[in-house]
Amino acid sequence: MARFKRILLKLSGESLMGKQGYGIDAERLEDYARQIKEIQEMGVQIGIVIGGGNIFRGLTGSQKGFDRVKGDQMGMCATVINSLALSSALGAFGVKSKVMTAIRMEPIGEFYSKWKAVEALEEGYVCIFSAGTGNPYFTTDTGSSLRGIEIEADVMLKGTRVDGIYTADPEKDTKATKFTEITYDEIYMRGLKVMDLTATTMCKENLTTREMCEQLGINYSSWKQSDVRNHPEIVRLRDTTISRNHIYKSSSLSIIERVWKNRKR
Ligand code: UDP
């Protein structure tokens, strides 16, 4: 049995563009699809939220004179494009998937509801939740926290270009150092851009250490923060996930793949 029954995977739009700097890199897409298939074959139910930053971001648009709400709607459409691309790549690997949309746009995708999503996940479909939250002024980070919490995912995993949480963006600042462990409160205090603050707050308010302990079969009443060092399961969890109150983000799905390869049976 895999460690997690159900996961929510967040892929940034930028991670899809590979080295080409814009749009969708077919090789990267194929690589993701292959890894998602491997994870699914381990019996894990997979929900995915993809960003749209490789195509359009509302905020960037508004800085160039676009109306913010229309710009955000364009951004949400960009996430739908990416979701369709991933769904198509998954299909090529024989993986059944459903694109769900936060805004009604049948027949492009099914209008999202938690119940339909959970049913599809239980039936073995990979569910791709597109159009973020369906509202302007939000991001797909918040979309993934929301969907992750709604579908009761055991863990939310974030694939980005950077292999962890750093004191600053390591692609811009060579002096940036990587955290081995971090809490939500530190993220606020240090003003780190791990996820946007709305998404961070959603996770902080909805996912607790108690849940993490229950999930890992640890006695919550005797739980101490220092146990993290002695508990290999949590170390592994901490090294790979945005989850509960220990947060980390992985650079690519290959890290996630490694976790499952090392999983306890
Ligand atoms: N967006 C939105 N509401 C949402 C999710 C996304 O308006 O709930 C828009 C917003 O303009 C955002 C764009 O879609 O900039 C693309 O999403 P995001 O920036 O999160 O993509 P990523 O950075 O992950 O590629």
Short account of what is shown:
Helix content is 45%, strand content 12%. The chain has 265 residues and is α/β, with parallel strands linked by helices. The relative contact order is 0.15.
Task: Describe the fold and architecture.
The protein has 265 residues and is of the alpha/beta class. It has 12 helices and 8 strands. The model is unreliable at 223-265 (pLDDT under 50). Bound molecules: uridine-5'-diphosphate. Uridine-5'-diphosphate is lined by residues 12-14, 51-53, 57-59, 71-72, 75-76, 78-79, 132-133, 135-136, 138-143.
Amino-to-carboxy terminus distance: 5 Å
Poorly predicted regions are 223-265
For the largest beta sheet, what order do the strands appear in spatially?
A: 4-3-5-2-1-6
Bound molecules: uridine-5'-diphosphate
Report the portion of residues in β strands: 5-15%
* Count of alpha and pi helical runs: 12
Helix content: 40-55%
- Would you list the SSEs in sequence order as H and E? EHHEHHEEHEHEHHHHHEEH
Mean pLDDT: 78
Radius of gyration: 18 Å
What is the SS-derived class?
alpha/beta
- Summarize the biggest pleated sheet: 6 strands, parallel
Total strand count, please?
A: 8
- Based on Cα principal axes, name the global outline: globular
Using brief descriptors, characterize the structure shown.
265 residues; six-stranded parallel β-sheet; disordered C terminus; binds uridine-5'-diphosphate
